[in-house]
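Subject — a protein and its fold
Fields — amino acid sequence, structure tokens
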Amino acid sequence: MKNKIIQSTEKFSFFEKMFLFSPIAVWFSYFPNFQIGRESGTNLELSIPLIFCFALSLAAIFEISKNFRQNFRQLSAKKAFWLSSAFVVWNDLSIFWSENTLRAILTSGVWGVLWLIFIGLILSKNLVEMLPILIKIFIISAVINSVLAIIQVAIGAFTDFGLCRGCLATGFGFVRPSVFAIEPQFFGSMLLAPILIEFWRILSGNNDSKHKVALILMLIAIYLTLSRGAIFALVPAMILEVFIVNKELGLSLKKGFVKLVIFLFASFSVGMLWHGIFTELNPRISDGFYGSVTKSINQLSLGKVSLPKNRPVEKPVEKVTKIELQPQQKQNGALDKSTASKAIFDGYVEKSTDERTSLNRFAIKTWSRNLHTILFGVGAGGAGKAILNTTHKTGWEFEIVQNEFLSILLELGLVGFIIWSLSIGFLVWKSRNFKLSWAILLAFLLQWNFFSGLPNALHIYLILAMILALSYLEKFEIKC
């Protein structure tokens, strides 16, 4: 007997079958990475999600062309088609005035690929049947990657293999996992949607232990990233879910918030302990368990909460440039932790916040330099070069704004920003019948304040495209 999932997919189109692999492909947003070179402020490289999305867009073109006239009539009746088309066309037009032509072409190309995938989803005839399969694959892959993140923290105490530069234990004394993403924040971003789906299930009365275990593992993983952007986006979105479920299903706010606090406290406590244990066990770092805890709290509180640091059990912190091991120590691989180096950061890294706020100020200054830039922007992909030429303070043209709202405003001007804002507003209004999407959208909107760009965040646009396509199905409700 054939597997039930295989049986249910037999009627799917080639595009729909391909899309089922998207919840797997998005996790490999940076590793493996196929580097081609650098040119004009652009890192020329390919990743699994980029390659996958390009192939998926070709499949979408094939589906669109099957019955083009009928498909176009169907599309032309949908406002989402015209809004998304306007945004893509405006991106393409901005190539002509972009301050970085190569990056503009590549950026517009990625937007075009995402637009074709969205069109393919709108025309899809089996979205309802696809959804539970997509969610199941997404949750399973999220749990697997969460377990890998937990393991990465443990292994990273003894070796730096496979870790990004900002993930190393030399920073805080413990590893911040990114698994196959470029950095912890983007890995945390990919965990937002599956966490919110599982928490929604539990709030809605699903008491299956496997969902609780999945949620706890993912919450531990997102804590281990210590990404303020991801965590600060997650918590308000989970709070929103409590209010939504209260209104939609009658769950008392008290019960909802009790569940929220229990899951967050339990998972984050385990994450903090895990960081502490492997800081203590790390033979290359002199910091101990207590120091790890104080740093975590100080970092997440933006330096507002500082626990006492002078404890009698604290280990020596002097840095030794050369360590001589006795023959017996070399044989056993033993290393006295007191001779190890202290981690670079003592707590809240104010420089990280200052750099982001500075880039935001530079972006606003560049955008407001003249009327043309205010209205039309510096062109798609032109932010880095334009900021450098205007402020002369970033040092190179590879820099990005680190804020998606300001990035779109700077590159596409007020016209492009209005089109983009109308698209987001339309998505909120159109998806009002299944408000789980509101929590997911809120999380992404909040996190967009901490980063910008497309290649490492393709999961966001694929998820939003799926939500908008589903919103066109009358009287449809997402049931997790």
